[in-house]
Design a protein that fits this description.
It contains 9 helices and 9 strands. The chain has a single domain, classed as Rossmann fold, CATH 3.40.50. It is α/β, with parallel strands linked by helices.
């Protein structure tokens, strides 16, 4: 934990990509309840309008910007809007992300490019677009949403794991690089929680898709609970926010155990996960 604290309290100006649903919306509502002004960027204009209305009902000043994180210009325009309308921004949450699963020989390169463009380069674009503004105003906070998959890497998820691990590396790099500018950087690594991420996921293996969807749907944690933990970590200025106890334990084991022992631990967990895959339907079998 850093001695520096984040700017997540009353009056904070906040921008969140992917803010119209899931964790993005839950974070928007949490910042609103803390007295912040919240601007959300998203592709879904209908959900964006619904979220802005919900934030207004909480008494917050809120705004929606149509924002595609695969387009440099959209994020640069968001930075300009915040500078001109709100005089700057205190917290930028690079939250937008997508899920891809399947074996290395099965996931099409098009899906790899999609995951890299959204999960990694979307975060890079957000950091690049907002860093000049944060420098001019003397500081701020970049919050990049990765995943426990960025720290602990289960099989059949190489594209997702690789992009999320890259977000962790990027965030740790920027934490050091931007410290002299008064800019904090936090990376968020949640485990499974109830969200709509599986609805837009791409999977080359229906069995893995089914397991992933089940883990999301059956999770005991809601997006609102995750947002509470993330908001607390932002307030404290933490470098890493891990939201699940089992995820923290797995990461600690990875750091402390000899790698062969850690691999055995991960293999056992992976076998349990893969054993839950539904059997493939035989041709002519009834559904």
């Amino acid at each position: 934990m850093s001695g520096a604290r984040g700017r997540a309290g009353r009056g904070a100006r906040v921008f969140i990509t992917g803010g119209a649903s899931g964790l993005g919306r839950a974070l928007a509502e949490r910042f609103a309840r803390a007295g912040g002004r919240v601007c959300i960027g998203d592709l879904d204009e209908t959900r964006g309008a619904e979220t802005v209305a919900a934030l207004a009902a909480l008494g917050a000043e809120a705004h929606f910007l149509r924002c595609d994180v695969t387009r440099d210009g959209d994020l640069e325009e968001a930075a300009r809007w915040l500078d001109e309308r709100w005089g700057g921004v205190d917290v930028v949450v690079n939250n937008a992300g997508v899920a891809v699963s399947g074996g290395i020989a099965d996931v099409p390169l098009a899906d790899w490019r999609w995951a890299v463009d959204v999960n990694l380069l979307g975060v890079v674009r957000g950091c690049r677009a907002f860093t000049p503004l944060l420098r001019r105003q003397g500081g701020g906070h970049l919050v990049n949403v990765a995943s426990m998959a960025g720290l602990v890497h289960p099989p059949m998820m190489s594209a997702y794991n690789a992009t999320k691990a890259a977000v962790v590396a990027l965030s740790e790099t920027l934490r050091l690089e931007l410290a002299g500018d008064g800019i904090l950087v936090t990376v968020v690594c949640p485990g499974f929680f109830r969200s709509g991420l599986a609805d837009s996921a791409r999977a080359s293996d229906p069995g893995i898709e089914g397991v992933t969807r089940a883990l999301v749907v059956r999770s005991r944690r809601s997006a609102a609970e995750i947002a509470e933990l993330v908001h607390r970590g932002i307030e404290r200025g933490e470098a890493h926010v891990l939201t699940h106890r089992d995820g923290k334990a797995a990461w600690m084991l990875k750091r402390l155990l000899p790698f062969p022992l850690y691999l055995r631990f991960l293999e056992r967990g992976s076998r349990r996960m893969l054993s839950r895959r539904p059997e493939p339907r035989r041709e002519g079998a009834t559904p």
